[in-house]
Design goal:
single chain; alpha/beta; Rossmann fold; three-stranded parallel beta sheet; 3 strands; disordered N terminus
């Protein structure tokens, strides 16, 4: 049995979430700690190939939120990652 570091285990879990979303046609929103810099959510989102990564200092315009909602309503699956507010 291969030993896993804590960071490797977390990335494996996120990859499983993405695979599960694809298999079962689901949209997952993963909220992470790190509401100041967002470094962890960026690294995790890139590693797990998230479809949208929201950083703590982003403020979306209403029209952008509507575009994202419209895109997600037609999506079969997605993995979204954000930081806690």
């Amino acid at each position: 049995m291969r030993a896993r570091s804590p960071s490797t285990g977390r990335l494996d879990d996120r990859a499983r979430l993405r695979d599960d979303a694809y298999t079962h046609k689901r949209i997952y929103l993963l909220e992470m700690m790190g509401n100041r810099s967002g470094r962890d959510v960026v690294q995790s989102g890139v590693a797990s190939r998230a479809h949208l990564i929201v950083l703590p200092f982003f403020r979306f315009l209403e029209r952008v939120i509507e575009e994202i909602a419209a895109a997600l309503s037609g999506a079969d699956m997605a993995l979204l990652e954000c930081t806690q507010p």
